[in-house]
Amino acid sequence: EAGVVQSPRYKIIEKKQPVAFWCNPISGHNTLYWYRQNLGQGPELLIRYENEEAVDDSQLPKDRFSAERLKGVDSTLKIQPAELGDSAVYLCASSGRGSFNSGANVLTFGAGSRLTVL
Amino acid sequence: GENVEQHPSTLSVQEGDSAVIKCTYSDSASNYFPWYKQELGKRPQLIIDIRSNVGEKKDQRIAVTLNKTAKHFSLHITETQPEDSAVYFCAATNNAGNMLTFGGGTRLMVKP
Description:
The complex is a heterodimer. Chain A is mainly beta. Chain A contains no helices and 11 strands. Chain A has strands spanning about 5, 10-15, 20-25, 30-35, 45-50, 55, 65-70, 75-80, 90-95, 110, 115. In chain A, strands 2, 4, 5, 6, 9, 10 and 11 form a 7-stranded mixed sheet that branches. Chain A is globular. Chain B is an all-beta fold. Chain B has strands spanning about 5, 10-15, 20-25, 30-40, 45-50, 55-60, 60-65, 70-75, 85-95, 100, 105-110. The interface of A and B includes residues 31, 48, 110 and 111 of A.
């Protein structure tokens, strides 16, 4: 099993430029998450998808961030235009069907995409 | 929403000693509490988790304890080794059990 796959691993751009990150979740995982991790901090949720539907995007800065998961499998996260404060690691994660509270469902992270905005 | 506090932010121990990291959470409906280990430049990886029907769970040198009344849970690492050096994150679910909120992390340094 490939796990959660993300690309690119690293991206350096100048401010005001656009950037996009791609994620392919674990096969069969219907729930996909994008988290942002600032240096020295814990992951913070940006958006959660159940299949192709964004069910929680309250923390996504919608003026410059957008995301899509058109076929309910892989997903892209876009920032346009990027700002200096967007420098962070963008982590994608996925989980199977059902609640974390019961059963064996767990959250699995990808390796992340490290963004540096100059 | 859920709020998770984690202490300490940094912890330095001598190889062979024990390490304890503590977390508190705010939502009394939370039922699932995982711990993730993140080595430098790598992804957070699940190392142990506990669901609220048990108070303690062990896996070799690591254990997690849960006190639902006090709304806190802890990670215990015994006989620490240099390869345990990493950042550890605790997390707790929301009421619906479909989201995780993470603590701020603890940087553990094990000195040989």
